[in-house]
Give the backbone structure.
Amino acid sequence: MAFENLSERLQKALRSLTGKGKISEEDINKASREIRLALLEADVNFKVVKDFIKQIKKDALGKEVQESLNPGQQIIKIVDEELTKMMGEESVSLNKSPHIPTIIMMVGLQGTGKTTTVGKLANYLMKKDKARPLLIAGDIYRPAAIDQLKQIGDNLNVPVYSELDNKDVAEIVKHGLQEADKNKNDYVLIDTAGRLEIDEQLMDELKRVTEVAHPDNTLLVVDAMTGQAATKVAEGFNADLDLTGIILTKLDGDTRGGAALSIRAVTGLPIIFTGQGEKLTDLDSFYPDRMASRILG
Ligand code: GDP
């Protein structure tokens, strides 16, 4: 299960409080120290942890003055609320264009799950919105990526626009959008190239695609298992592109949770979806409150 290490640590830190009739400042300090360690070990950003602990102590000490029936439970509630806030509080949906098509551009480093997620999102929109999407194969440097997208298109019975001999991605995207207009597709999902690291050439290409496509959603796909590195990548992409949200993939293999917990607080970008497996159905909307409850068990 996702976040099992973090869950275990936090639950242990809080368990010591639940049995107590009254909680002293010393109890709160001790639990805070353990929570702090658990979060740092989960690879949550240092500053995010610092602010979090400060807030927990403030809330907990404030509450302690009031006579309470079950102080331990109250602290758990405070931690739950602050974890929720850390992840953005409200769930955020995709932007929808007032006229068709709504354009979604998917960006991210290589291997994070971009192409797979384009398929997952198309499947999600078809189920939820009865969408008729068109997929555009903009990852032209790896022929395998185009084949992979075509395969996904075949599985979903969704058209995929590609040009094998064209090396101008912006032009391919422009033609793909013309095709979508002709076919009255209501969503266009653009897969783009990734690299192992952010570089200028990649960013220039993505900027050119943005200028042609004017996406309603520019979603960064990041691998949850990379922890804080994912937040760095998000800051890097966001410096050059106006990202509208994050899709956090491979949450099924993430025992720590650092990316999920830090990325919103560090970048201000909402996590919109999470990927929790390799199948096309393994995509979930992200709800900060549900995630916090899941972490606290
Ligand atoms: P891209 O290079 O960013 O387009 O990445 P791909 O879509 O080719 O995905 C890379 C690998 O990650 C593939 O083996 C996918 O099946 C796998 N993958 C993608 N999303 C998830 C996920 O949410 N969970 C797991 N376990 N694997 C995933």
Q: What stands out?
A: Strands lie at 102-107, 133-138, 160-161, 187-192, 217-223, 245-249, 271-275, 283-285. The radius of gyration is 22 Å.
